[in-house]
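Why does residue order matter? Because the sequence determines the fold. Keep that principle in mind as you read this record.
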Amino acid sequence: MKQQFPLKNVQQEKRIFRSRVFVSIGIVSFFLLLLVARYAYLQVFHHQEFTEASDKNRIRLQPTAPARGYIYDRNGILLADNYPVFTATLSKADIEDMDDTVKRLTPIINLTEDDIDGFNSRVKASRKTERVTLKLNLTEQDIARFSEVKFQFPGVEIETQMTRYYPHGELFAHVIGYVGRINDKELKSIDKDSYAGTNLIGKIGVEKSYEDLLHGFPGYESIEADAHGNILRHLGRKESTRGNDLYLSLDYGLQSIASEQLAGRRGAIVAIDPRTGEILALVSSPSFNPNLFVTGIGHADYSALRDNLDQPLYNRAVQGSYPPGSTIKPMEALGGIHYKTVDWNTAISDPGYFHLPGDSHKFRDWKKTGHGSVNMHKSIVISCDTYFYILAYQLGIDRMNDWMRQFGFGAKTGVDLPSESEGLYPSQEWKMRTRKTKWLKGETISVSIGQGAFTATPLQLAMATAITANHGAHVTPHVLRATKGAKEHKIINAPTGKINFSGTDADWVKMRDAMVDVIQSGTGRGIRTPMYQIAGKTGTAQVKSIAQGKRYNESLLTERQLDHGLFVGFAPAENPEIAISVIWENGKHGGSAAQLARPIFDYWLLTRKKNPLLPQNHQISGGLMTAGIKPGELASDETNTSTNPNTVNRSKPAQSTTQNTVQQPSQNTNHTANQADITE
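Structure:
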């Protein structure tokens, strides 16, 4: 009989079914729990983060650049203005291929290689959501061409930004400076949050030294945009804080007069209030138009300025180092009194030369036949070189160095302008350190008349003259007089100390009287006036060396080999209100430089209060925005603005014209010890 087997095991199948059900439920439950956990992670724990990320796809924070602070002169005349320009900007978040977009935009808005290079640098340093400036100052034609094809460029916008304008052009270029595009080096050092929305920064002058005050704080605007980056609506705004307004110590009228004196000449003029250290005028000639640099100077224009033999970009007043010539003799004579080497009665017999003991080499006086018997007073009035040769030999270079440094020579003055030169007052230590040789006594003789290795800037000479006028009270030159705005800044308009002098106040008075006689009967008598008393000192600095036994022959020299003319002075002599230094490169002698100073004294002391020079086209307030004037409608040298509503146009000074006859001043020029002032 056959054995029968059951076809299926019902109990086993039930067990298998139940196990499969449980496994399936477990798998489904696991993944369901995983989904719930993920949901909780996204919607609970990171809700805020992802909400913000989502909003950024449609809601963005767009920085708004602060308006740069205005710059005024001491009378409220506007020197640096703001005006709006049209700017092409790109959004990194809305553009996939930035290079292609820029390439297609190039013929439409006339992009240059400089525009593209600058844009690439800014893109690298910018945030993902930040709009980056491609080109400043678009023309109406650029805007019209872009408007026709705007739909092809999502993320590209034409915006209005504020930029800088200098209504007086060349007149204040070296002292105010200019702003320009932020370069790669500056990008690494600035706070990017503070400069969000702007690409301009101070490059030189006041614009650079007071960048922190002028710049302000950026604001932000919350906007809703579509997928193409087009703005749909404005959701909120945090206003930016404009930069501080600066009121400088400069006087427009005095600056104009000083500029007129140097028109067509190479040189510099600095005028200081000896009571406070305020710089009243600072002119370097030739000058340049700072407006060329604001939106990006063209290659041709920059090459013309850079390669010009006359160096118009060079600030001679602050950076130029010149042999000071005989202008330093009053300070040097006071050093002899301080060290009790000489007094006012000390006299010498001047044969027209001096030679060191045991040496036949003659150090010549500017007057070949000599001056006869000369005391200290007469040595200043007639500028007797021999007197100071002997004094320097007695003092020695180290004591001379210690004393003259108290007047600011051989060190920066501390002026609130960048790139100041230290000049050079030599010493034995300096020569051994720099040239690895010992100091020679003959070199001391050259230094005694402001030649040899001794160099000074016009600003240093003005400060030293101010200290002399103050009877030794030290002042620090500065151009900032006051500031108004959100940021606080302390300004010191007073003497900052007094030099160490063993003499009496009477010695300062006697030196002042000697400098008055320089103008009344001495080497500066060409500028004497009955209206007020000037205390001054002329100086001549040789550019070309003269061999021993040879005579100075002007006819054999080229124009750039002629002597520099220098002058320092203050007025009124008894109660000084202004101290001046003048350098006229290749001006032949100090008397010619003194002639340039006289109109400056006259304006400040006689004309300023009665009939001040003021620019034309005054406006009631603000800058060009308030006046509704476009910079293109103004000539930088012809049309000027002011913020003083009570001023009226009286007269307009002739504008300085730049001629191609100016050279960079001689730097640390060495002169042989036998050189002397030819004509004071």
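The chain has two domains: 59-218+236-248, 252-607.
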